[in-house]
Amino acid sequence: MRPPSVDALARSLADTGLPHPLLVDAARAAIADGDPGEVEERARRHAHAAARALLQPVVNATGVLLHTNLGRAPLAVATEAAYANLELDLSSGRRGSRHAHAAALLARLCEAEDAIVVNNGASAVLLVLAALATGRGAAVSRGELVEIGGGFRVPEVMEQSGARLVEVGTTNRTRLADFASAVENPANDTALALKVHQSNYRIVGFTEHVTVAEMSTLDVPVVADIGSGLVDAACPWLGDGPPAWLTGEPAARQTLDDGAALITFSGDKLFGGPQAGIIAGRADLVRRCAQHPLARALRPGSLVLSALQQVALAYLRRDGQAIDFWRMASLTTADLEERAQAMVKESGVGEAAQMASVPGGGTLPGTEINSCGVVLDGDHTASLRAGSPPIIARVSDGRTWLDLRTVAPDDDRHVIAALKALG
């Protein structure tokens, strides 16, 4: 039997909604697979696989609020097809700066002299080191020479920046005297002292570390990578103040108050915005970063800056409910339990249960947040993931757990439909 026409087979898949060139790819792959008698079924499988590989919304029922694989902080962004005054000063009509919008609001929010935005947290650290310490020493505690997800290693980033690593103290104990000795040694030619957020691990036991306030007494600028992007330890955007699980997390305002010359942090973690890296602090040092050639290579576009602007304005209004991450994080267990009970009642599947969410994204490792959701016997994650929209759950002790803290209430109907399908 002769194989069917590639074009005809592709056209038979038009109901999938994929563009014709992708359907041609699916048809060719199906024909190359083998038996012509089953070719249309195979072509549909290839087309389905191509559609599933596209970026698409999913329902996060894992309980990990900042799930790196799922894009970290959820963010609703609506924008019209229009030009923007990205680098135009509307008052003078002359060329302006892309740092005059979102970055200016971020500086105000952090109570910093100035700020700029780059495309992620790692690039913020890279740019600061390149602008301030190329060819010179940067002092870092050995206990903070971290590697986080994706292979981001502080020593390797420093090497790429052109800065020379000056290791200080030991893995578990570093003192101010260790930093002072490194800074005072002329052979090190130390340009700055760097404090790095330990992200997704902790050192406990016989430990000692140097605070930003202590480091600020050194004769070099202190750069603090606070990582997760908590703006203010007081959380004035939340009516009830900071939740207990935030205890110990460094915050932008307080770190600058403690004497850091610059701070860097991510936009898509506790800040609750899009992927971005923020550099804020002393105006002269921010200016040096902005003028460095890497700044152009690392700058974000208007979509990211517009999203950051929306989130910054919500913070300045003290409207935590307008920031999806903080809305999820501040839900009460009573609210979640009510939703879980309603799901079980309507679907007739599973049982409501107490569970624990986690911040995720390298934030506050080991910290749990009381939550509630639906639990099922057995592993149903593959079936849930195959739905539309895909529902991402977790398995523990042979049971499937759907944590509602990370499920938007509007998505409850999708979870109920998926539970009914399992029943």
Polypeptide structure, described:
The protein has helices spanning 6-11, 20-33, 39-52, 102-110, 121-133, 154-161, 176-184, 212-215, 252-257, 283-291, 293-298, 302-316, 324-329, 333-347, 381-385, 412-422; strands at residues 59-60, 64-66, 114-118, 137-141, 147-148, 152-153, 164-168, 190-196, 222-227, 262-266, 277-281, 351-360, 369-377, 391-392, 394-396, 399-403. The protein is an alpha/beta fold. The strands form four sheets. The chain has a seven-stranded mixed sheet, with helices on both faces. A five-stranded mixed sheet has the order 2-12-13-16-15. A hairpin with a 3-residue loop joins strand 5 (147-148) and strand 6. Helix 4 (102-110) runs parallel beside helix 12, helix 5 (121-133) crosses helix 10 and helix 14 (333-347) packs across helix 16 (412-422). The radius of gyration is 25 Å and the shape is globular. The mean pLDDT is 93.
Mean pLDDT comes to 93
Number of strands: 16
What count of domains describes the coordinates?
A: 3
Amino- and carboxy-terminal Cα gap:
42 Å
CATH superfamily heading of the largest domain: Type I PLP-dependent aspartate aminotransferase-like (Major domain)
* Helix content, binned percent: 25-40%
CATH architecture of the largest domain, by name, is 3-Layer(aba) Sandwich
The Rg value, from CA coordinates, equals 25 Å
Q: Which residues sit in consecutive blocks of at least 5 with pLDDT less than 50?
A: none
